């Protein structure tokens, strides 16, 4: 993954929980950088999420500090005090304002964060900042992930080259002990925070808000997009500027790439499932129908069992709460028509569909038949592996 | 289970799908009987559900016909025609109006119901009607259930004895191939259909709408309450009549009993879980928080693993979408305080909580700390057994 001008990274092993690996990552931005964020909607959000929510409206960033091993969630006043100490130490090292520092934590919840270890770790980090340390950053933020997650895109704004680099972690919407979904994207584009926020919100809905592993929502989910402003493109003042077309497509692609990596690393996942919904009352209705299918334990276990059980897909459409007409519903699995006009297709041959189900990439297409709303959602199957990871794990 | 005056039952083996067992049940009511029903909210409801929904406003009943082995769901126009033929044959046998006949089907979906077998079976049933055949009825409507489900209550209205008998089936909100939750309750009370409907709706919210196995909603879920009017109590005209107090309590108790039997037979369930939510913004908010906890795969797998992982309970409260304040939340497991005021309790000793988790009856109490709304929800754990039943099953 390439350098992003104006952005440097360093990692350290602080021993917060894990032994023999890095668990702290500092991403530093040159002065003048802007930031946008999408944070968990959980009503029991962690202390770091509350801090970030309060700082985002200013839209300025000099540092993102991320630790793994402890989520600093459900830690009461002590949790907020830990955030304050980490933020103060970072601001002092970088010579920036407190509100320019963003924090994220992932790992066990309900245990006090040993913030002294983080502050000690930061001491060495400020001097070790280097460009393009994305792989090291992705390694440092992993918890139950089985592989580090990163993606990059080269694009342009107004004909001038722009770079996007992102890292993510997560192997469930929420992994054992709230391991959380975190993603951080850096670009050298020169964009006001309001424009960034608008672009990020839209892209997040089509990527991280369109994936599901187990339907559970972490207290700590955090997605951030920061822009250093080092690229030489013309000034952009609104998100609707047509010169942003390539950048938007690149951001969409990068976020989808990261989000799909999270699903592929889903706990116990053996199959990657793409659910395409067309013909719904609206794009949001289509997404909710897709998520109802993607979250259904019965659909997910059928996929694990390689059973083309389209009846469970019908059930999930019905329970989504969105407008549907049983007698207009059409379902294709692996491109093969299974049901149309509310009935199994005449002469339905399960053989090709059964063969598709044995693969590792499953495609389900539902046409609701009542409107023009479309969406795509990604999920994985629900296997014995998921139960083993989550039932056999002890905090 | 006792007789209910004015109500008779017969069962038959039609060979719809299963061999060597009954699969058809006729519950017949004397003239003048009233009926109320609560049906699935699925937008892809089955043909029998659509028929019942259309007849319920009349509130008159002479027969309920239930078959197992085929759900007659997602069967298009052929499905509605099957319902018509079964209803016509029943009305002819009993000499009643078509609209007095209610139907329910449970079993595989997407396959045409062999209604000729049902019509043939009905021929013998009308002559074989007997009182108090509840056990036979409960047996005939089972699909993947591992035991038949029934309950009865003796109560009074205005000092006169009244009987309630109910049967149910289901081992998931929806079992393999939409096995569905069905429940039928008969009483000899003399109550107008409007009063019955009001009582049933309220009791259903506290019982069948407060249980969850996997969060999936069947296309066929059906709960009906029919009253023969043979009891000698004073005339009752409104659901708010204070003389209904005992009857309401008995109906609540009976429906909770049946609903809990369904949860105890939950697919792969090894533990029965009672979730009590207090201090929510409203009773409905409390129920939604309870269901968010009861539906969370991470909470359910933690219970399967006997792990008192209260962090996952916090997460589920947070994702419910209901108003909550992280710093007022209190959690008790097995009666032991685990977290209070947004933090683990000082000196928390996991030993007694761990011991409680090893039992087969798990109690989780969440106090949201912001209001007076209360609710109780029942669920089971999520085990390897659930995956085996649903992933290894082939339609």
From TrEMBL, chains A, B:
The gene is argJ. Heterotetramer of two alpha and two beta chains. The record marks 179-180 as: Cleavage. Keywords: Acyltransferase, Amino-acid biosynthesis, Arginine biosynthesis, Autocatalytic cleavage, Cytoplasm, Multifunctional enzyme, Transferase. It is an enzyme of class 2 (transferase). One of its GO terms (biological process) is ornithine biosynthetic process. This is Arginine biosynthesis bifunctional protein ArgJ. Catalyzes two activities which are involved in the cyclic version of arginine biosynthesis: the synthesis of N-acetylglutamate from glutamate and acetyl-CoA as the acetyl donor, and of ornithine by transacetylation between N(2)-acetylornithine and glutamate. It comes from Pelagibius litoralis. It catalyses: L-glutamate + acetyl-CoA = N-acetyl-L-glutamate + CoA + H(+); N(2)-acetyl-L-ornithine + L-glutamate = N-acetyl-L-glutamate + L-ornithine.
């Amino acid at each position: 993954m390439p350098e992003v001008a104006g952005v440097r990274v360093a990692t350290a092993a602080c021993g917060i929980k894990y032994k023999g690996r890095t668990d702290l990552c500092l991403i530093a931005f040159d002065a003048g950088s802007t930031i946008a964020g999408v944070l968990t909607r959980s009503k029991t959000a962690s202390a770091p999420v509350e801090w970030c929510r309060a700082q985002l409206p200013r839209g300025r960033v000099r540092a993102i500090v991320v630790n793994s091993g402890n989520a600093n969630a459900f830690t009461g006043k002590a949790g907020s005090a830990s955030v304050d100490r980490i933020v103060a130490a970072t601001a002092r090292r970088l010579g920036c304002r407190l509100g320019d520092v963003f924090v994220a934590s992932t790992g066990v919840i309900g245990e006090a964060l040993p913030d002294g270890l983080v502050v000690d770790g930061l001491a060495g980090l400020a001097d070790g900042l280097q460009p393009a340390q994305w792989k090291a950053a992705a390694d440092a933020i992993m918890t139950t992930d089985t592989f580090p997650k990163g993606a990059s895109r080269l694009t342009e704004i107004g004909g001038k080259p722009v770079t996007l680099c992102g890292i993510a972690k997560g192997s469930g919407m929420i992994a054992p002990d709230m391991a959380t979904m975190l993603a951080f994207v850096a670009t050298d584009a020169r964009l006001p925070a309001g424009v960034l926020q608008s672009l990020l919100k839209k892209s997040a809905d089509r990527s991280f808000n369109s994936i599901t592993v187990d339907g559970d929502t972490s207290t700590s989910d955090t997605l951030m997009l920061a822009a250093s402003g080092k690229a030489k493109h013309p000034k952009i003042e609104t998100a609707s500027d047509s010169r942003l077309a390539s950048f938007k497509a690149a951001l969409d692609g990068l976020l989808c790439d990261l989000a799909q990596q999270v699903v592929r690393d889903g706990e116990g996942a053996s199959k990657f499932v793409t659910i395409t919904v067309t013909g719904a009352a609206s794009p949001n209705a289509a997404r909710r129908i897709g998520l109802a299918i993607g979250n259904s334990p019965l659909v997910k276990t059928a996929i694990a069992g390689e059973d083309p059980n389209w009846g469970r897909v019908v059930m999930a459409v019905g329970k989504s709460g969105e407008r549907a007409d049983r007698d207009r519903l059409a379902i294709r699995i692996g491109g093969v028509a299974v049901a149309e006009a509310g009935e199994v297709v005449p002469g339905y041959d399960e053989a090709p569909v059964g063969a598709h189900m044995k693969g590792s990439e499953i495609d389900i297409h539902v046409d609701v038949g009542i409107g023009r709303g479309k969406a795509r959602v990604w999920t994985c199957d629900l296997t014995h592996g998921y139960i083993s990871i989550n039932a056999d794990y002890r905090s």
